[in-house]
Design goal:
Strand content: 15-25%
Order of helices and strands: HHHEHEEHEEEEEHEEEHH
Oligomer: single chain
Largest sheet: 8 strands, mixed
CATH architecture of the largest domain: 2-Layer Sandwich
Structural class: alpha+beta
Helix content: 40-55%
Radius of gyration: 26 Å
Number of helices: 8
CATH class of the largest domain: Alpha Beta
Distance between the termini: 10 Å
Length: 359
């Protein structure tokens, strides 16, 4: 995809304007200044790539002029440099085109991770635990912070359901394609005959929403509080309790049950905001591109997206036909980045193709 010189110059001019504007903060309100600062920060790497591309094109023009000269030695050197430059230019164009793709506003956000055991009974719960450990290790290796919000532990190990907050820069951008049904094929520890079983767990990755992202009116909430009998006195606010928050317009319900009623309400509201924000994002996505969904980012949580096959030591992502014989490394978190990077690359290729078709 060839980016016009006019488009490149627009980027440089906009960056120059922002640079000047940030030098005169008194001319803007605080909100305007924050918005301009963010745009300047986001545009920086793009402008750097745009300037490098412009320089490369100018260099190409100079080299082409040199190849038509009379100096044989200079002509040979120019041809050699021109060949190398022409090999680099398509990659530079592609890299910048990817940077110019419309950004998902939620990409920079932290995320709420929800994993639930599906079909397969005890084995599904154990597998849900395996998936949680995989994401936790991956998050730690990426320098992110993982905080468990709630968990329903299964008797045999693993989880019937677990919800965690993964905070850090760009968490949602890396994990958003993990939503869907994950399937495991292996011999359960409870299987005496050695027969391979297929079980499943569902994963949902939601962008963490702030108050500014989603407006929740107090009158739209029904909050029920249940508190077990406690010892009273100084312990009255830390006895076992539960908070159930229902969003009346949508019927969404979140239940939190820890010792602190205040923390229960805070965590329940965090999950509720994330789910409502996700619902709104999905609604907008359907309205904008009902017939142009990427095979990676369809967002269908009921879709089987990946199989973890223990006997063959392989992991297959069905959306992009990727199979890696690195089951142990992927479940350990260290090999998951290869899968995630492939999904992101596929999504970018789809968007680039759609952009080119629209031109």
């Amino acid at each position: 995809m060839i980016i016009s010189r006019e488009r490149l110059q627009q980027l440089l001019d906009r960056f120059s304007y922002l640079e000047h504007a940030l030098g005169t903060p008194d001319e803007f309100s605080n909100d305007e200044f924050i918005k301009l600062s963010k745009e300047y920060s986001d545009l920086g790497p793009i402008v750097e790539a745009a300037q490098a591309l412009l320089n490369a094109r100018n260099e190409q023009k100079d080299l082409e002029e040199m190849t038509s000269g009379d100096d044989a030695e200079m002509k040979e050197l120019a041809l050699e440099e021109l060949k190398e430059l022409k090999e680099r230019l398509p990659e530079m164009e592609k890299d910048l085109s990817i940077q110019l793709l419309p950004k998902d506003a939620a990409d920079a956000k932290s995320a709420i991770l929800e994993i639930r055991a599906g079909t397969g009974g005890d084995e599904a719960a154990i597998f849900a635990g395996n998936l949680y450990n995989m994401y936790e290790r991956y998050a730690v290796s990426a320098g992110w912070k993982v905080e468990m919000i709630s968990a329903s532990v299964a008797e045999v190990g693993g989880f019937k359901e677990i919800v965690a907050n993964i905070s850090g820069k760009g968490v949602f951008a890396r994990l958003k394609f993990e939503s869907g049904v994950h399937r495991v094929q292996r011999v359960p520890v409870t299987e005496s005959s050695g027969r391979i079983h297929t079980s499943a767990a569902t994963v949902a990755v939601l962008p963490e929403a702030e108050d500014v992202d989603i407006d929740i009116r107090d009158q739209d909430l029904r909050i029920d509080t249940m508190r077990a009998s406690g010892s009273g006195g100084q312990h009255v606010n830390t006895t076992d309790s539960a908070v159930r928050i229902t969003h009346i317009p949508t019927g969404l319900m979140v239940v939190q049950s820890e010792k602190s009623q205040h923390k229960n309400r805070e965590k329940a509201m965090k999950i509720l905001r994330a789910r409502l924000f996700d619902m709104e994002r999905e609604k907008l996505a359907r309205e904008r591109s009902d017939d142009r969904k990427s095979q990676v980012g369809s967002g269908d949580r009921s879709e089987r997206i990946r199989t973890y096959n223990y006997p063959q030591g392989r992991v297959t992502d069905h959306r992009i036909g990727l199979t890696l014989h690195k089951l142990d490394q992927i479940l350990a978190g260290e090999g998951l980045d290869e899968v995630i990077s492939a999904l992101i690359a596929e999504d970018q290729a789809f968007k680039l193709s759609a952009m080119e078709a629209a031109l």
